[in-house]
Amino acid sequence: MNRHLHIKQFLHLTLAHLKEVMRQPAVLFWGIIFPILLSIGLGMAFTREGATIHNIGFMYGDDNDDGKALKPSAIETLFQKAAATQGHELTILDETAFTLAVKDDRLGDTIFLFETGSWDKSIMRLKQGQINLIMEVTDTGTVYHFDPLNPEARIAWHTLSPLAAGKYATVSRNGTIPETAPDSNPKSTVSPLALPGTRYIDFLIPGLISMTVMMSCMWGISYGMIDKRSKKLLRRMVATPMVKSHFLAALMLVRIFINIIESVLLVFFAWLIFDVAIQGRMEALVTIFLAGNIAFCGIAVFVSSRTANTEVGNGMINAVVMPMTLLSGVFFSYHNFPEWSIPVIEKLPLTLLVDGIRSVFTEGAGLVETAPASILLFLIGVVFFIAGLKIFKWH
Amino acid sequence: MTPVIEVKNVYKSFHSVKAVNGIDMTVYKGQFTALLGPNGAGKTTLVEMIEGIQKPDSGEIRIMGLSWEGNENVLHRAIGLSLQETRFIDRLTVWETLRLFASFFDLGKQRVWEIMEIVNLKEKADAYTVHLSGGQRQRLALGIALINRPKVLLLDEPTTGLDPNARRDIWSILLDLKYHSNTSLVLTTHYMEEAEQLCDTIMIIDKGLVLKAGTMDQLLSEDSSEKIIAFSLEPPHPSRESIKNECPFPVRWDGKNGQGTILLSNLEGQLPQFLDFINSRDLKLKNMECRRKTLDDLFTAMTGRRLDE
């Protein structure tokens, strides 16, 4: 077959797929927007059982080094009143971390996990969603740094500040209580983090972009194939000299094109309304974005490679997208999940994409930082695509 | 002359169902062949094996002397086909759908216009395929089948579910093709009129087997003198037993509607006998007609069932 025919076939297939999508706003809505709405609803309704865990960054006001050793006596002093009056339990884990467990039979237990670090390190962990509040202890009082729009951070602050406040809430760096406090009624201050890159919206936008890519690929491509298979149109098309891979490649190209438009729109509105900015390298963002598209296109081809039944297809797609939507840190950090599950969650395609895009947005990452995730996503896409093509049912 | 289609001793089963149970078939250049049989006879399975969509369990299929294995590209270019009830991309127009399929064969706008002319869909060029009527959709499917000027045309029930006018539209397109091209056609149908009107050769198929094959004349010639008397009686209708036992000729009796048919080989001698029987039993004829045997009668004689059952 000559080159001209290849191009012509591919062009017409691409145009046909594109027109098909663009002319059915309902497909766009149900395939892309609805899953997002659904996920938002689920995310809000999602409640955790057992103790609520808050990861808190802890630092002394004049500490610029990493992992400055804790002064257990100072910590005990800080939470002394709470521990004495309400029976809260303070545990020093090691030289850089300690926990404060708050027992509450009615509202459920709360555990604060404190980890010390410098300001820079704490801010980085905040951007990555590992923590959402930084508690800074200075000679004059305690300062809480967090995004007031982040509900989890607000709850953590509300619960934590009364426990640490009080007469002895000021602790100097060397762990001694000043004989005469500078202020007899030391203040606990809230310092809102409104710096772009540290707010909840900065955390959320990369998550939404990634989820949109996943949903759009999974629903769009699967719909495109299952619908044509159930109509016997696939069967009719392969009874011509059409090259099979052209059909799939055109379907994927259209999907990636739509995803680019959607993501650009999302970022544009996030910039317009919330002043969300991309702090890292554009080429890194484009690379990880495309790699993520390829990964989910490949998975979509694999998932819908055999069924002609829309309901079976829906079920299989849900089996793929639901767990990742909940686990991969789209709406809230996956660092709150049990320790053992985190290495697994980090390897999920959506997590790779979310973390990659988020690192470019908020941590200023470049190609070097995102390369491993980009390569892995690309490989995931290729492997699933080839496997899907092997078992693909055209008839 | 090399046959265009050669099917030799082909078998195909699905689980325990023997869909095609040893069929031979030969189609020559320009020949129109009908596979006539009721639903579930194995027509679609046979035609899909010729189309290369299904593989026979055993036996041989050659098209223009080529088997499917290793010759897909050549054969896909030589064959045009329409499947039972194909639907198209909903929001693509007739024009765009034909352009898409034309692109698979490296054909351009010129051919698309010709096809829209042939299948009479010019007025619907800009209509979405989802808005087409059943007849228009079948004409579009036929247009797609014809787009590459196929040497072999394979149509699976091209008129099933269509009203008589829409059916005749399809027939006239196919008759035009028959007289103005060298295309060989295999079509499956359960309408005997369709087979009679369009095809040179008719193969009557049931339960995966060819019951009888030949031209219309050949099929009905063996007993060309035989005539069918179809009659209906005024109520009260006699019982099945009394009619069967007392009538001088074997009767196919539908007691519910009071209708029966008998087969007479000597009309002049036997018709008076039949009328005597009616008279002697005091039965009242509501209607009676005498006609020549049809393919449906032939099928009924061979299987005890009707084609459209």
Give the percentage of residues in beta strands of chain B: 25-35%
Domain tally of chain A: 2
- How many structural domains in the coordinates of chain B? 2
Shape of chain B: elongated
What can be said about the biggest beta sheet of chain A? Answer: 7 strands, mixed
Report the total helices of chain B: 11
Q: Level of helix content of chain A?
A: 55-70%
Largest sheet of chain B: 6 strands, mixed
Tally of separate helices of chain A:
14
What is the total tally of β strands of chain A?
A: 7
Which strand-content bin applies to the residues of chain A?
Answer: 5-15%
The count of DSSP E runs of length 2 or more, i.e. the number of strands of chain B, is: 13
- Order of strands across the widest beta sheet of chain A? 2-3-4-1-5-6-7
Q: What distance separates the N and C termini of chain B?
A: 38 Å
CATH class of the largest domain in chain B: Alpha Beta
Q: In the CATH hierarchy, what is the superfamily of the largest domain in chain B?
A: P-loop containing nucleotide triphosphate hydrolases
Question: Under CATH, the topology of the largest domain in chain B is which?
Answer: Rossmann fold
Q: Helix and strand string of chain A, N-terminal first?
A: HHEHHEEEHEEHEHHHHHHHH
What separation lies between the terminal Cα atoms of chain A? 23 Å
Structure description:
The longest helix of chain A is centred in the middle third of the chain and has 31 residues, at 200-230. In chain A, helix 10 (282-303) runs parallel beside helix 14 and helix 13 runs antiparallel to helix 14. Chain A starts with a helix and ends in a 5-residue tail after the last helix. Chain A folds into two domains: 3-46 and 199-390, no CATH class; 52-192, no CATH class. Chain A has 395 residues and is α/β, with parallel strands linked by helices. Chain A has helices at residues 3-22, 25-45, 72-78, 80-86, 119-127, 151-164, 200-230, 233-237, 244-274, 282-303, 310-327, 342-347, 349-362, 367-390, and strands at residues 52-60, 89-92, 97-102, 110-116, 133-138, 141-146, 187-192. Chain A is built from 14 helices and seven strands. Chain A has a seven-stranded mixed β-sheet, with helices on both faces. Mean pLDDT of chain A is 81; it is low at 42-49 and 167-186. In chain A, strand 2 (89-92) and strand 3 (97-102) form a beta hairpin. Helix content of chain A is 58%, strand content 11%. By secondary structure, chain B is of the alpha/beta class. Chain B has two domains: 5-221, 3-Layer(aba) Sandwich (Rossmann fold); 227-292, Alpha-Beta Plaits (2-Layer Sandwich). In chain B, 35% of the residues lie in helices and 27% in strands. Chain B is built from eleven helices and 13 strands. A six-stranded mixed β-sheet of chain B has the order 5-6-7-3-8-9, with helices on both faces. Chain B has a four-stranded antiparallel β-sheet with strand order 11-12-10-13. Chain B has a three-stranded antiparallel β-sheet with strand order 2-1-4, covered by helices on one side. Chain B is elongated, with a radius of gyration of 23 Å. The relative contact order of chain B is 0.14. Classes of the chains: A alpha/beta (395), B alpha/beta (309).
